[in-house]
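User: Teach me something about this protein's shape.
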Amino acid sequence: MKTISFKTLGCRLNLYETDALASKFREKGFVTDGDFENSNAEIFVINTCTITNQSDKKSREYINRAIRKGSLVIVTGCMAEQYAQKYFSDKTNVIVVDNKHKNRIFDIVEAHLSGEFSDVEKFDGDVFGFEAAKETFHTRSIVKIQDGCNNFCSYCIVPYVRGRAVSRPAEDILNNIKTELEYGFKEIVLTGVNISKYNFNGIGFEDLIKQILEIDKDFRLRIASIEPDDFSDGFIELFKNQKLTPHIHLCLQSGSNDVLKRMHRHYTKEEFLEIVEKFRKIIPDFNFTTDIIVGLPGETDEDFADTLEVAKKIGFGHVHAFKYSRRSGTKADAMAGQIDEKIKNKRSKILRDLSEELSEKYLLSMVGKTQTLLTETIENDGFIYGYGENYVRIKMKMSDGVTSNEFYPVKIVKLENDVLVGERI
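Assistant: First, the predicted structure itself:
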């Protein structure tokens, strides 16, 4: 049996696709080696990201590391769309696979090993052509519902490497979820590039969520990263259903209206705050996490101060801080007023420090409340770890009969090193 090792960088969409690919290889008799750093696998698959310069750098590092091992290296993902042909096309042990053909990586590898491989383009690609993953690298099952984006934010390369927005047939999504639940998964995470724009044959995102919630199984549904579009009151009301977790990664990007306009975002900070307020009227401790970009060309100290003020007002459970990274071909790349790297570093540090403060404050607010812990890993310290419905990390003392991938109601008693301690109810 041949051994294959995967490395995934970037978003949950990449994680979903890697899970599906790894499951396919296992099904066909391959051994998957999860220790990429020390692996001597015959085949390496690097699912890359190109959202920032740092993402490109990390992707190249992992690719070069795999190349030096002398194994067959499959380079795929968004960095492959941008640069992989430029950097690696002369390497005899490297095959570059674009996002459209990512679902055919097993067939491409099989053809290469049998000496029949000629060109990736001879395979029919499909961005939704992934089978349900029976075994994944996570307790939660990620399900792809959409791909591509039509927004063309001024800083973002994603529409150029993922293409225009397309939605997966609702029936396929529902069947995928039902299969994952039959496999034993208890939490489903919906992912895509811009999932709020999901629409297939008149079925919109809200209608899709309703249909998923009607599946007669014991599970919970989590919405991953989503844009702050016009959420209807009906959509917000859906969160009264206990299957739908009270957590959304809602992308703010900036708290300055001037910066949001230059970013080509389609909302104001006031509209973003209104969305948050509507959710928290229904669920006061609703957990919002977010992405924020600092250092977009022209961002002033006042703009950055506005961002900090909005973040404090909302009380995010976590802020993923990005330094603006120039992406060739985007509108922001040609903007005047590019920010010095030292200023971006300073603002990023301030934002990360604020994120830690806000995260601790939110976690402390959970003490005394109850959460349903979905157990994941058993550690040597005698505790089992996992996440509650509010996407807070929890540990619970191990005891007889407790297993991973099960729901346990717990009362949160304290916070220890960024992890909530829960006592089983």
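Now, about its shape. The longest strand covers residues 407-416. Residues 341-365 form the longest helix (25 residues). If you'd like, I can walk through any region in more detail.
User: That's plenty for now, thanks!
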